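User: Okay, second chain of the day. Same drill as before: sequence in, structure tokens out.
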Amino acid sequence: MRRRNSVFIAVILIALDILFSRFLSVYTPGNVDRFSLQFIPNAFSGFLFGPIIGALLLVAGEILGAFIDSPGLAADPLFALSAAIKGLIYGWMFHNKEITTKRIFLSFLLVTALVDIGLSSVWLIVGRRLMWQSVLFPILLTKSAFVIVQTVLFSMIARPLSNRLR
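Assistant: Same drill. Structure tokens below.
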């Protein structure tokens, strides 16, 4: 990709990240977790730009999204760290690699287990002083089921586009 095209695509991916996560998402009861299509631009960030730039794009989306639409909360550096780790995982799993259903499933499983269920639960428990039972169980159930949905949707989008976007 040429530099100008790369910058344009990076900005579009950040904008989609913010749009999907902040404005087109559905919260679970208790506002502990949310469902969104945010994983699509996040995974494409790593797919197109690699782990380092992908991590930076996800951090930018997290910080800008918190400033644009955050219900009474400031930008949290711990969630920015989670976003960076997601970008690293997506970049390591997808950049310059063949896009297979197995690779897609493993990447979403890693992100879900390590970041969404693991780190984000800790950030909510420690940072917001929530009881671990009220955080871990709802996130564990919803995120575990959502891995299959993410795999199917991203497979339907990424596999046909993978040769065209490189």
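The CA atoms of residues 112 and 144 lie 7 Å apart.

User: Thanks, on to the next one.
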